[in-house]
Amino acid sequence: MRGADPRVFLGLHRSRHERSLLTGALDLGVTAIDTSTNYLGFHSHEVLARTAGDLLSKFTLSTKVGYFRGSGGVEHSLDPTRLHTAVERTVRDLGREPDVVFLHNPEHSLPEATPHHRDVMAQACAALDDATAKGLCGAWGIASWDPHPLASLIDRATPRPSVLMVRAGLLVGIRTLDAADSLAAAWRLGQDRVWGMSPFGGSFGAPVWDRIDPRVFVRHGAGLSRVQAAFRVSYSLPQTNTVAVGTEEPAHLSQLIGALAGEVDERMIREYRSFLRDRSRGQPA
Questions:
Q1: pLDDT class of 9 with cuts at 50, 70, 90
Q2: Distance between CA atoms of residues 121 and 167, nearest Å
Q3: How far is the CA of 82 from the CAs of 17, 70, 93, in angstroms?
Q4: Which residue(s) pair with 183 in the sheet?
Q5: How would CATH label the architecture of 7-213+239-280?
Q6: Which has the closest alpha carbon to 103: 70, 138, 67, 69?
Q7: What is the pLDDT of residues 72-89, one digit of tens each?
Q8: CA distance 160 to 193
Q9: 15, 248 Cβ separation under 8 angstroms
Q10: CA pair distance 63, 88, nearest whole angstrom
Q11: DSSP string, the chain
């Protein structure tokens, strides 16, 4: 069954936050951006407000909390008070309430699944749930680079997020894909509530992409470039309708948007996931 039309979020992880990039995105019909409190050396929100404050109302805007400046550099915390304060500061720095605030990589402060960590996770989620109820953001979610440690921490005491953001694409391992599926099922989140990120595993310039032709996963994929095919396939690993991708060039963003008309061969995706699972078990491919 075909899901909703795929959507693109402009990710600002490595972005210089230049106004021209945002206006270029709007010209292409991309009306969603994703950032974080710790991007651009903890200045992302302030720079966005200063350089493009008049544009922010035109975007759906998501951001993240969980990383903080510490005496020894950057530190991660799930302390409910710090998280709630971070959301309040986000609103002040941006000059508007974000549409979604993600709890950023909670697994960094939850190395093992213990009853204590289950409570910590629930309290952190409750802090964002409370911030949403107070109107500091439109909704809250979980953004996780490695969701595997989180699966055993979810129970009835854990508030339910509206969105789950995880890594997506051909370079994501089966452990991460399965964990994302488990979390989405536990929270009863459909694929429209699962967002992908880092569809190229960091950069399409990595050597691995010289050995892979992602077009085999797209029906009639000969009309797409390898970059376009890899991006289109990321919407099926895991199943999602939304992927955040970073770029500094509107022309590159336009290329990726052009890939969305491609149709992924879901049979090939199922076979690929089976291959990944067999390889993880040490079975011959």
A1: very high
A2: 20
A3: 26, 12, 16
A4: none
A5: Alpha-Beta Barrel (3.20)
A6: 67
A7: 899 999 999 999 999 999
A8: 12
A9: yes
A10: 12
A11: ---SPPEEEEE-TT----HHHHHHHHHTT--EEE--TTHHHHTHHHHHHHHHTTTGGGSEEEEEE-EEEETTEEEE---HHHHHHHHHHHHHHHTS--SEEEEE-GGGG--S--HHHHHHHHHHHHHHHHHHHTTSSSEEEEEES--GGGGGG--TTSPPPSEEEEE-STTS-HHHHHHHHHHHHHTT--GGGEEEE-TTTT-TTSGGGGS--GGGGEETGGGS-HHHHHHHHTTBTTB-SEEEEE-S-HHHHHHHHHGGGSEE-HHHHHHHHHHHHHHHTT---
As given in the structure block, the two tokens for residue 215 are 């077009």
Tokens 């404050």 correspond to what residue?
53
Q: How far apart are CA 142 and CA 100, in angstroms?
A: 10
pTM for this one?
0.92
d(CA 260, CA 228): 8
Bigger pLDDT: 90 vs 223: 90
- The DSSP bridge pattern shows strands 218-219 and 263-264 to be antiparallel
From first CA to last CA, the distance across the chain in angstroms is 29
Please state, in angstroms and rounded to a whole number, the distance separating the CA atoms of residues 231 and 226: 9
Task: Please state the separation of Cα 113 from the chain's center in Å.
Answer: 23
Side chain identity at residue 18, one-letter code: E
